[in-house]
């Protein structure tokens, strides 16, 4: 099937939202951005504040929703912001489904997270249901439960109101439109920013042997957009690259992208016996079954090079905008 006539992007001004708007541009007639302020988002036909959403005029019959809005937490304060994250994310989920039902919109796409899985699972397999009594990782429990509630709400309103949702469980996205602040960026983007710096050593905080699945944000956005061609599908599935890399490998790849290799310096390594979750490995088979024409995702090396290009361009634009900064 074809893409819908109009797409409403909740969280259009955020990291994943901006990438989704880029991927939609030129392919959909109307892109309506929703954010907290109502400030225009490049690429959107119009942008509205979430608080004034009900003022939107009548929408085309074929309208879909992409919901990637979330509480903008800061990496440095993530642990202390869990209650705020939980409260805000639940409210956004309720608003999205309330709006969908009020306007008769039956196709919704949502950004969930691999954090929904129980902490003890060695492989995050989206073909297997999990027991909600299986506790997520303690360090992100409130965030994880906010994402679990999003998936529960999706199933509730599918059964009660005929709203079809595909929930994408993202794994460690990185890339364009992330923050330029290294301390607050997603980990792979932060490594690119660090690699572009002038330090004599490359600092790695935490466990260098931890393995994660890193996904280029442009690829995540394309999966969201391609899924809009489907109708009547209800699913929760991993949106992952499908291969883990060690944090130490990520550091080397980021430095290679910058063209400057230097020694790695370990900062605040985890104490013995407290290594956290060492490996988070996600399967990606169901995504490919659902979207067989989806192009191959960027390798980590390719994605980091593109992220570095975006970062350098963004710094130049920032400087030209404010040369006295």
What is shown here, in short?
The protein is an alpha/beta fold and about 325 residues long.
Written overview of the protein:
By secondary structure, the protein is an alpha/beta fold. 35% of the residues lie in helices and 18% in strands. The protein has helices spanning 15-24, 82-103, 141-161, 187-195, 217-227, 247-258, 285-290, 300-321, and strands at residues 6-10, 30-35, 46-49, 63-67, 107-113, 123-124, 164-170, 173-174, 202-205, 211-212, 215-216, 235-239, 245-246, 264-267, 281-282. A 7-stranded parallel beta sheet has the order 3-2-1-4-5-7-12, with helices on both faces. A two-stranded parallel ribbon has the order 6-15. A two-stranded parallel sheet has the order 8-11. Helix 1 crosses helix 5 (217-227), helix 2 (82-103) packs parallel to helix 3 (141-161) and helix 6 packs across helix 8. The longest helix has 22 residues, at 82-103. It is globular and about 55 Å long. The termini are far apart.
List the helices and strands and how they pair.
Blueprint: E1 6-10, H1 15-24, E2 30-35, E3 46-49, E4 63-67, H2 82-103, E5 107-113, E6 123-124, H3 141-161, E7 164-170, E8 173-174, H4 187-195, E9 202-205, E10 211-212, E11 215-216, H5 217-227, E12 235-239, E13 245-246, H6 247-258, E14 264-267, E15 281-282, H7 285-290, H8 300-321
> With helices defined by DSSP (H or I, 4 residues minimum), what is the helix count?
8
The averaged pLDDT comes out at 93
Fraction of residues in helix = 25-40%
Low-pLDDT windows of residues:
none
Which percent range describes the beta-strand content?
15-25%
Gyration radius, to the nearest Å?
20 Å
In total, how many beta strands? 15
H/E series:
EHEEEHEEHEEHEEEHEEHEEHH
Query: How does the major sheet shape up?
Result: 7 strands, parallel
Kindly report the spatial arrangement of strands forming the biggest sheet: 3-2-1-4-5-7-12
Shape, per Cα inertia axes: globular
- Gap between N and C termini: 49 Å
> Based on helices, strands and strand pairing, what is the structural class?
alpha/beta
């Amino acid at each position: 099937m074809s893409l819908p006539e109009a797409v409403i992007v909740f969280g259009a001004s955020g990291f994943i939202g901006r990438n989704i708007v880029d991927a939609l541009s030129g392919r959909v007639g109307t892109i309506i951005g929703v954010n907290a302020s109502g400030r225009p988002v490049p690429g959107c036909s119009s942008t509205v504040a979430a608080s004034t959403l009900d003022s939107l005029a009548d929408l085309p019959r074929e309208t879909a929703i992409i919901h990637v809005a979330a509480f903008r937490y800061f990496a440095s304060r993530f642990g202390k912001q869990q209650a705020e994250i939980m409260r805000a994310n639940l409210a956004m989920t309720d608003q999205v489904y309330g709006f969908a039902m009020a306007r008769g919109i039956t196709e919704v796409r949502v950004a969930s997270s691999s954090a929904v899985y129980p902490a003890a699972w060695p492989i995050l397999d989206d073909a297997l249901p999990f027991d909600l009594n299986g506790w997520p990782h303690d360090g992100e429990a409130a965030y994880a439960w906010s994402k679990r509630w999003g998936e529960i709400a999706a199933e509730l309103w599918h059964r009660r109101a005929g709203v079809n949702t595909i929930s994408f469980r993202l794994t460690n996205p990185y890339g364009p439109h992330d923050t330029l602040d290294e301390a607050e960026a997603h980990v792979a983007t932060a490594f690119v920013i660090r690699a572009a710096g002038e330090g004599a050593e490359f600092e790695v905080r935490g466990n260098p042997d931890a393995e994660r699945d890193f996904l280029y944000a442009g690829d995540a956005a394309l999966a969201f957009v391609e899924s809009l061609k489907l109708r009547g599908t209800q699913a929760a599935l991993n949106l992952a690259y499908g291969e883990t890399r060690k944090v130490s490998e990520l550091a080397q790849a980021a430095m290679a992208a910058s063209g400057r290799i230097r020694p790695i310096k370990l900062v605040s390594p985890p104490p013995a016996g407290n290594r956290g979750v060492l490996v988070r490995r996600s399967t990606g088979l169901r995504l490919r079954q659902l979207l067989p024409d989806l192009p191959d995702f960027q390798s980590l090396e390719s994605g980091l090079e593109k992220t570095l290009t975006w970062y350098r361009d963004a710094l130049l634009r920032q400087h030209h905008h404010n040369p006295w900064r």
